[in-house]
Amino acid sequence: MKSIKEERNLNGKRILLRLDLNVPLENGKIIDATRIDKILPTLKFLISQNTKIIILSHVGRPKGKIINELSLKPICEDLKNKLNQNVKLIKKNINEINNEDFFDNIDEKIIMLENIRFYYEEEKNDPEFARHLSHLADIYVNDAFSCSHRAHSSIHAVTNFLPSYSGLQFDTEVNALKKITSEIKKPITCIIGGSKVSTKINIIKNLIPKFDNIIIVGGMANNIIKYMGNNIGKSLQEDSSDSIIQEIFSLSETRNCKIIYPQDVIVGKNLYGTPQIKELNEVLSDEMILDIGPKTISVINNIIDESNTILWNGPAGYFENPNFANGSIEIAKKIIENNKSSKIYSVAGGGDTVSLLNSLNSINDFNFVSTAGGAFLEYLEGKELPGIKALN
Fold this sequence. Notes:
392 residues; alpha/beta; 6-stranded parallel beta sheet
């Protein structure tokens, strides 16, 4: 996989740049611009190389239909302000743009084509659609790692028709994930949460042979607490998870990886109830486990202190309610403390984890925070991502 940084002859070249600008919108306003901010270095690099840039991106899931609420217009305006450059949004049907010298009639350095998922050919990985896109440019750059688990035209098929490179953000993402999966500095610990253990079983199985500790928190941990013979009351749980938990513990024993789960918990009568610290054998039938307790926080903090590398995916509790956010906040604080003293290399990812770190204004206090979602998780599962395969 070649990075665009390695290409020495970019002056005057037309760059077809695939970005992930799929940010949350509300009434045409951007709610969270994290994904936009992360790709600015690539755009600034290409501008500095005197290239002409054609941006491809999407918002939402329009399924091949034009939906005005999913226009890239607000993102186009945001980029204008952040780059201090004009960014022209082209709404013309891509299939009707046949001029290979596209920029001859448009006096701009950066243009953005309207939502690529307005075209049904995109998600079908249509080769003719990809060939048509390729006629607009000299070079293709993928800086949308978070879309690279999809074999779509602007991610996969287009690489058959143009010299293809990874972007700066793409490189950063892959390098960070390599450091926690193949270029590991041990001891290495994974803190993993989420509601269902079945959705994370393949990640856990892939990481057990490589990791020293896997700490299971959140709704997933409820299943383990119940498996160990404890009452979990009205807590979030997954049916028929015993065989999965058995498999995790069995594999961890053979691969010398410790599985850590809560020793005490914070419960409430409902999501907005009064928090109470409980031992695992004290949870009542009308209570819900909504966070980890102080003993568990202490255990996790000690493990973080003993680790050189940390992967965090999934908060420790129902952090949306401050009454049940303490476990997640304390984990974040301990990782940040060790990060600032250069004791660990830290990677965090997953929508809820990113939301939590955003709420704490701590995104920049980790070595890397991934906004990639599905691509991040599939990489951790050990799957080959179509976007990476295409660039290779």
